[in-house]
């Protein structure tokens, strides 16, 4: 019996499932707490409503016709303050803007390429500087998307399409005649990154690293330079093996990535403005995806694709506003929380407050009969529905408390008016820090 009791006691653990074996990195602290970021894909591709850069790769449009879209890329109604008012209002904590996609078109007045919105587009202005100011004025974290590959650059390879003749006119290369084409291109990347680093971004979101090895990109040197220019900057996982956090895309991970991570997702099927793509995700799906991501310790980087004039499509605004309203109603479960219970305790996403004294249960659908919670060793003070404040009855059933087996907690079903149309959250307040029963189950050899 003593042996059985020892094994049972040994199976009790304080909840720290997702914090074990993770490296401490102060640079990532803000990122782990961010929960929601906004990804912005804005470029020439929105003029014709085609796939960003990849439409050239797949030869659906010629390089010449792709670049010709710049003649209608006006940014005439661009108001970054309005963008940031919206992002701040919905609860986003960071934003990531495509400063340059694979097509090579830069949104700032780079001196290393005339293929930018000042010299090549109808906009005739730097779009990055006012964006940075708007982000800083809101106190949000600033992220720069930057493509390592530049399919318009004459020294870059491989490319799958025929570039326009004399692309060298876009890329000044004084004093580099004796360098190899690849050396010139790598120098070009470093030069542009140094320009961008003058804005002191908090995050770099690289892309395209799969086209070359780390040694070719000089990824280690890039990371070293970025930290030299800004010691607090963090980098996504697309700088070969030199990233700080994981960035799964479009498909929600079934198994949680190790360490810090974010999930980036489009609202419809495309990243840029694509008016013919009306396959927008329902608000319920976006909200549930957000909950699934934060319940496993990640952040959602939700994408928008502004129009060529700088306005945001109403379908995208509606979804941002709806998600923001849900977050505002359930902010206790979103901010200052961490990944929730391991599998088996509750059949749905959960979050845990950082002091481990409140547990948040997520209901995707209206429950029947009762709500079941298993393996909670700590005594429960109260359970209520966030938003409505409705208090719910609960009772323990089964188990063997004298043998440290807590049994099942049965929670009454909320009234219909308390159920949220997207995701309902129950707040379980504990008397002390959460302690879980994680045993395999034993024979109860002594009954009380």
Question: What layout of secondary structure does this protein have?
Answer:
Blueprint: H1 2-10, E1 12-14, H2 29-32, E2 36-40, H3 45-48, H4 54-57, H5 63-68, H6 80-89, E3 94-100, H7 128-137, E4 141-147, H8 181-197, E5 203-207, H9 214-217, H10 219-229, E6 234-235, E7 262-265, H11 283-294, E8 299-304, H12 314-329, H13 331-334, E9 337-339, E10 350-353, E11 358-363, E12 371-374, E13 380-385, E14 394-397, E15 408-411, E16 424-430, E17 435-437
Parallel strand pairs: 2-3, 2-8, 3-4, 4-5, 5-6, 7-8
Antiparallel strand pairs: 1-17, 9-10, 10-11, 11-16, 12-15, 13-16, 14-15
Helix pairs in contact: 6-7, 8-10
Protein name: alpha-L-fucosidase
Family: Belongs to the glycosyl hydrolase 29 family.
Keywords: Glycosidase, Hydrolase, Signal
Describe it:
Belongs to the glycosyl hydrolase 29 family. GO terms for molecular function: alpha-L-fucosidase activity. Alpha-L-fucosidase is responsible for hydrolyzing the alpha-1,6-linked fucose joined to the reducing-end N-acetylglucosamine of the carbohydrate moieties of glycoproteins. One of its GO terms (cellular component) is lysosome. Keywords: Glycosidase, Hydrolase, Signal. The chain has 448 residues and is an alpha/beta fold. The protein has 2 domains: 306 residues, Glycosidases (TIM Barrel); 94 residues, Sandwich (Immunoglobulin-like), CATH 2.60.40. The strands form 4 sheets. The protein has a 7-stranded parallel beta sheet with strand order 6-5-4-3-2-8-7. The longest helix has 17 residues. Strand 4, helix 8 and strand 5 form a beta-alpha-beta unit. It is 25% helix and 18% strand. It contains 13 helices and 17 strands.
């Amino acid at each position: 019996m003593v042996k059985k009791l020892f094994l049972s006691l040994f199976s009790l653990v304080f909840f720290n499932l997702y914090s074990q074996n993770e490296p401490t990195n102060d640079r990532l602290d803000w990122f782990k707490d961010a929960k929601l970021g906004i990804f912005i894909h804005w470029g020439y591709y929105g003029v014709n409503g085609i796939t960003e850069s990849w439409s050239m790769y797949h030869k659906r449009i010629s390089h010449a016709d792709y670049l010709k879209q710049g003649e209608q890329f006006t940014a005439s109604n661009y108001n970054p303050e309005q963008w940031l008012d919206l992002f701040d209002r919905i609860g986003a904590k960071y934003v990531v803007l495509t400063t340059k996609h694979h097509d090579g078109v830069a949104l700032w007045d780079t001196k290393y390429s005339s293929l930018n919105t000042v010299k090549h587009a109808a906009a005739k202005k730097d779009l990055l500087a006012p964006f940075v100011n708007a982000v800083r004025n809101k106190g949000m974290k600033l992220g720069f998307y930057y493509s390592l590959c530049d399919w318009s650059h004459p020294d870059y390879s491989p490319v799958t399409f025929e570039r326009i003749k004399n692309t060298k006119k876009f890329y000044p290369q004084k004093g580099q005649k004796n360098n190899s084409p690849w050396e010139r291109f790598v120098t070009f990347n470093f030069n542009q990154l140094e320009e961008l680093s003058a804005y002191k971004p908090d995050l770099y979101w690289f892309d395209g690293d799969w086209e070359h090895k780390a040694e070719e990109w000089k990824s280690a040197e890039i990371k070293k330079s970025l930290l030299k220019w800004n010691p607090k900057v963090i980098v996504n996982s697309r700088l070969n093996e030199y990233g700080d956090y994981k960035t799964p895309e479009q498909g929600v991970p079934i198994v949680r990535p190790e360490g810090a991570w974010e999930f980036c997702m489009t609202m419809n099927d495309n990243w840029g403005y694509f008016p013919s793509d009306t396959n927008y995700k329902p608000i319920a799906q976006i909200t549930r995806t957000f909950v699934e991501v934060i319940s496993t310790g990640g952040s959602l980087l939700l994408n928008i694709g502004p129009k060529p004039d700088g306005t945001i499509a109403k379908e995208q605004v509606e979804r941002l506003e709806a998600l923001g309203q849900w977050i505002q109603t359930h902010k206790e479960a979103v901010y200052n929380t961490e990944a929730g219970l391991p599998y088996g305790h509750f059949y749905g996403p959960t979050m845990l407050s950082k002091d481990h004294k409140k547990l948040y249960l997520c209901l995707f659908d209206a429950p029947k009969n009762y709500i079941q919670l298993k393996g909670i060793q700590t005594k429960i003070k109260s359970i209520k529905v966030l938003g409505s404040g409705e208090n719910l009855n609960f009772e323990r059933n089964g188990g063997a408390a004298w043998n440290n087996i807590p049994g099942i907690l049965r929670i009454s079903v909320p009234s219909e008016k308390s159920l949220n149309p997207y995701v309902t959250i129950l707040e379980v307040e504990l008397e002390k820090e959460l302690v879980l029963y994680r045993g395999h189950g034993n024979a109860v050899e002594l009954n009380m």
